[in-house]
Specification:
This is Jasmonic acid-amido synthetase JAR1-like. By secondary structure, the protein is an alpha+beta fold. The protein contains 21 helices and 24 strands. It starts with a strand and ends with a strand. It binds adenosine monophosphate. The site of adenosine monophosphate has 15 residues, from strand 11, strand 17 and strand 18.
Amino acid sequence: MINRIRTGIVSVTMIEKMEVELLDVDKLIEEFESVTKNAENVQRDTLKKILEENGCAEYLQNLGLNGRTDPESFKACVPLVTHDDLEPYIQRIVGGSSSPILTGKPITTISLSSGTTQGKPKFVPFNDELMETTLQIYRTSYAFREREFPIENGKALQFIYSSKQSNTKDGLIAGTATTNVFRNSQFKNAMKAMQSQCCSPDEVIFGPDFHQSLYCHLLCGLIFREEVQFVSSTFSHSIVHAFRTFEQVWEELCADIRGGVLTSRITYPSVRLAMAKLLKPNPELADLIHEKCSGLNNWYGLIPSLFPNAKYICGIMTGSMEPYLKKLRHYAGGLPLLSSDYGSSEGWIGANVNPKVPPESATYVVLPNIGYFEFIPLKENAEEHVQDKVSNSFLSKEPKPVGLTEVKVGEEYEIIITSFGGLYRYRLGDVVKVTGFHNSSPELKFVCRRNLMLTINIDKNTEKDLQLAVEAASKLNAEEKLEVLDFSSHVDLSTDPGHYVIFWEINGEVGDEVLKECCNCLDRSFVDAGYVSSRKVNSIGPLELRVVRKGTFQNILDHYIGLGAALSQFKTPRCVGPRNSEVLRILCDNVVKSYLSTAF
Ligand code: AMP
């Protein structure tokens, strides 16, 4: 895998010279082509491997597989499950049981998924095998990016953050999945081999306060501005969040660079010490950045003007990240935006191997050797799907999943994962559409979270429908040069009839007339037949647009960080259900204006 050797200066102190072994891009692509050409057999082998490695686990022992590893026996013996079904097993692992419960080898690390959809983080097992599949995904998409947009040996401005990583009372390590990856001993070397070394020191990435880490990431980026080859984060929300913060703190950053002294707002000694090693008085750089920023029109093209050698911006940009694309494009000027990969704390799924495609159309090719994948066709299981939307939970009726190579182009499916991390036929809760095949492995477009639905009676609106409605309505806003910074929604059943509530945080002052029109436009933009007919007969009440105070979505973010989430994995909850009462309270307490639609 590693055959090109280049020498680069990688030490922060610039004293040491180290050999940096770069990945062989052609070989990586060749390997990917080979496994995707043979997807069906590779899936069979992968399942066999998973079941052989974990056959002695209590969970599988109880299901009567008796050593069989073929897909047919697997499907006959192992039920489809949700996280709730596995919770008792996971709790025993968290509780310190070292017997093989879900995996053959005992689990020593637990990941916390972002939990932004359910309101609280979920625990899922993490192990070396999941780390290896993570790196495999990273390497694959890197290889395809490298082919289209080659980078030079330099640095990456990565807005990555660690959550609080804690030890459970029984000695297990628990942190978000990304934290577990960033802390893994293999991570740094893997990043070096991908020429993607983060320009911030570890003390910043693992700093205890993400506001302080963010400030220092920006400062490190500016110090290494000539070397920065690309700007990235796990989810692109973090990049937008970082440059919105830059708009507030840029003069302070310039002052730090000018004097070579870190602002007193950074209080953690370890972070201060690490930054002191990098920060030297540099009035020329401070003047240059000042001049660049002062010359920009409303911060358009900020990223390329700060980082003249950046080749692209990269991070997950699909799904709930799409609403940030407009702002990201604004900061990016002409720099390409590349959506990275598709996966979850539970396991990775696919890599983006067509990085030139705009993020709105990005698809992910499933890697058939990183897990065993099944797909529940949503068309055939439409009845379950509809009821599911109402109850927000899965029904007992067993749907019929198909295998990886049996999916059909144009159809939508719910993904089922069997991983190397102890999850067997696990309903991830994501809906994807098959857009084509790369060799014999499907290309998936992320559609939405399955349980994120606005629904009162016969209406069904997904996260995507909400996003399109907000996009349409905010265009009215755009004419006044105002922007929707973030949004969420809620079904209010306390009124009779119930109605949709959309929360908006907007930038600047917007007149009542415009917001009333936005509210009507939102109501009209939900074109689902069930919604429109219910609105016409008033079995769903007028949609309500509630404008919230500036900073409300930052409060929501802080709330999740307080629960142990990390900025790296944060996704704004787009539909806030009753289980998420604290977020609903934050939204409702911050409403400054509200409007009821008169569209129907
Ligand atoms: P987490 O709960 O933090 O592990 O996040 C995993 C979830 O993020 C997935 O189940 C998806 O809903 C979403 N996600 C991950 N990757 C992508 C992607 N490339 N596009 C859209 N959504 C994604």
